[in-house]
Design a protein that fits this description.
There is one protein chain. The protein has 118 residues and is of the alpha/beta class. It has one domain: Response regulator (Rossmann fold, 3-Layer(aba) Sandwich), CATH 3.40.50.2300. It has helices spanning 12-24, 35-44, 61-71, 106-116, and strands spanning 4-8, 28-32, 49-52, 77-81, 97-100. It has a five-stranded parallel sheet, sandwiched between helices. Strand 3, helix 3 (61-71) and strand 4 (77-81) form a beta-alpha-beta unit. The longest helix has 13 residues, at 12-24. It is globular and about 30 Å long. The protein starts with a strand and ends with a helix.
Length: 118
C-alpha cells in the first residue's frame, strides 16, 4: 500500500511540483491550498505525512501544525518554507523536520523517506 502525503501550500506551482515529484517516488499525494482545506482533508482521508508551508493566508502553518498535533498526535509533519528564520520559533518545534524550500528536492525526499520508514 502506498504512503499518502498531504501537500499544503498556497502556491499552486509548488503544490503541483511536489505532487509530480513525490508521485514519481511512489507516494500517493493529496493537495490542499490552505490551512483550513488541510484540516478538512485530514478529517476525510487517511494521511501518513503532511508537508506543510508556514506562510499562508488565513490559518498559517504554525497554527495548522498545532491543531494537527492536538488531534492526530502521531501524524508526522514536515514544515517546508522559504523562510529559514521560522525554525527558531517555538511553535515549529513540534514538526518532525524543517526544510527550507529549494529547487533541489533531494533533501526533502530523503527526509520524507526517513520519517515514513521509522
Amino acid at each position: 500500500m502506498k504512503n499518502r502525503i498531504l501537500v499544503v501550500d498556497d502556491e499552486e506551482g509548488i503544490r503541483l511540483l511536489y505532487k509530480e515529484e513525490l508521485e514519481e517516488e511512489g507516494y500517493e499525494v493529496a493537495l490542499a491550498s490552505s490551512g483550513e482545506a488541510a484540516l478538512e482533508r485530514l478529517d476525510e482521508s487517511n494521511i501518513d505525512l503532511v508537508l506543510l508551508d508556514i506562510k499562508m493566508p488565513g490559518i498559517d502553518g504554525v497554527e495548522v501544525l498545532r491543531r494537527i498535533k492536538e488531534r492526530w498526535k502521531t501524524l508526522p509533519v514536515v514544515l517546508c518554507t522559504a523562510y529559514p528564520h521560522y525554525k527558531q520559533e517555538f511553535g515549529t518545534w513540534a514538526s518532525e523536520a524543517y526544510i527550507v524550500k529549494s529547487s533541489d528536492l533531494r533533501e526533502l525526499k530523503e527526509k520524507i523517506r526517513e520519517i515514513l520508514n521509522r
